Amino acid sequence: MTKKDNNGIFFFDFDNSNLKLLNYFCRNKTKFMKASYLLKGFIISLFVFGSMSCKAHTFQSSFSIASLNVDGLPGSILGININPDAPMEDGSVKIGQYLAKKSYDIIAFQEDFNYHQQISQFMTDYSFASWLGGVGLEQNSNIAPFIKTDSLSQFDTDGLGLAWLNSAISVSNENRVKWISGYGYFDHGSDLLIIKGFRSYTVTFNNVDIDVINLHMDANYGADGEYDIQARNIQWHQLLNAIKSMNNGRPKIIIGDTNSLYIQDDIEGIFFNGLKAEGYQVFDAWKESKNSQPESLDKIIYINPPIGNKLILNSYKQETDYNSLGDHDPVVAEFSITEESVSDIALPTTTTSTRHTYNLSGQRVDHHYRGIVIKQGKKKILQ
Predict the structure, then answer these.
(1) In what order do the strands lie in the sheet with 357-359?
(2) Residue 208 backbone phi and psi in degrees, to 5
């Protein structure tokens, strides 16, 4: 879209909605050099640091990704009701049938504890990331071990899982991270009975890599939820720092049961603003879609790096046909990816530029820099 600056000069403001306009410019660069005065400000801004080697962005075909808390705790332990409205075996069978019919390309699970087999048996077209087991006092291969961690005894499971359609997606580099803060052992959601945290994955779609982070945050909110909110704020800080430390130039999807609402948790101030200060673009799919459905605790947040491939949101919805199979409805987003090559990055055209090293923002760096850099026209990773 065009905007006018303080001097009355029009310029183009590029965001996710008009990347195609940049593609058109790149394909018709010579014509635009002869364009009218209204376009001069835009052209000069592209060439002030040197010539841009333009290459049209490739819009990949779309993929879908869903998040679902499957409410997989058992109904009771030793006769004590801990989850009286749980789907349990019969309900989990229906969840598996529902997901197999939906055929989402990627599914992120939370609370995938005791009924993993009942869900996965119907999803024969999917591959699954590692499953760590359920909770309970019986001793069998489906129950996670009860271990000593720090000053607590916890079930060594996080309830997180990922499934993907074999025909469309490949997944690698699974990494499990424990939250550094939590609240409530026998109350406030009993978060500390398990080892909650997040898992990160490299997801490859049409030979393009993105990062997917599946998470489950501290539960409970409301009048008695002060310490739970504090725990979640620390978790948002931890997630922010984890993403900043990745520094791999890839777009990212943060997905899962955040147990957070914008009205009570400082998601914007801690997480969104923290990443924007580093040059990232951060979006909540629910907000960006202008969806009229109420905010969900289950969120799909996507992050685009300053330079490089970008995620484009095509659609978002909260499913309305889940029919209370569990206590959460699936949230689903569809994305496309735009590809950018190294040659899309404008670097100074001096005679010495090929001898120097630049980061992905086009800034010159030295040998102390760590991350993805460009030297002599090629991407490298300095570690």
Answers:
(1) 364-365, 357-359, 371-375, 378-382
(2) -115, 130
* Domain 59-339, architecture per CATH: 4-Layer Sandwich (3.60)
Q: What pTM was computed for the model?
A: 0.77
Element (H, E) at 201: strand 197-205
Amino acid 40: pLDDT? 46
Contacts for 373 with CB less than 8 Å, ≥ 6 apart: 357, 358, 359, 360, 365, 379, 380, 381, 382
Q: What is the pLDDT of residue 114?
A: 95
Q: What is the pLDDT of residue 324?
A: 83
Copy the structure tokens of residue 218: 């501290």
Burial 95-115 (b: 16+ CB within 10 A, else e): bbbbbbebebbbbbbbbbbbb
> Is residue 60 a contact partner of residue 206, using CB atoms and an 8 Å limit?
yes
C-alpha count within 13 angstroms, C-beta hemisphere, residue 215? 28
Q: Tell me how far apart the terminal alpha carbons of the chain are, to the nearest angstrom.
A: 39
Mean pLDDT by 10 residues, the chain (383 residues): 45 45 46 44 42 51 96 79 86 97 98 97 97 88 88 92 94 97 84 94 95 96 83 97 94 98 96 96 97 95 95 97 92 92 50 60 69 69 70
Q: How far is CA 191 from CA 111, 134, 149, in A?
A: 11, 14, 14
Give the residue extent of every domain in the chain.
Answer: 1-52, 59-339, 350-383
- Which pLDDT does position 85 carry in this prediction? 86
Q: Which two tokens stand for residue 245?
A: 């430390």
Task: Output the pLDDT for position 57.
Answer: 58
For residue 159, give the nearest of 74, 224, 63 by alpha carbon: 74
* Cβ within 8 Å of residue 288, ≥6 positions away: 313, 316
Residue 41's H or E segment, with its range, is helix 40-47
Residue 16: closest CA among 361, 359, 353, 289: 289
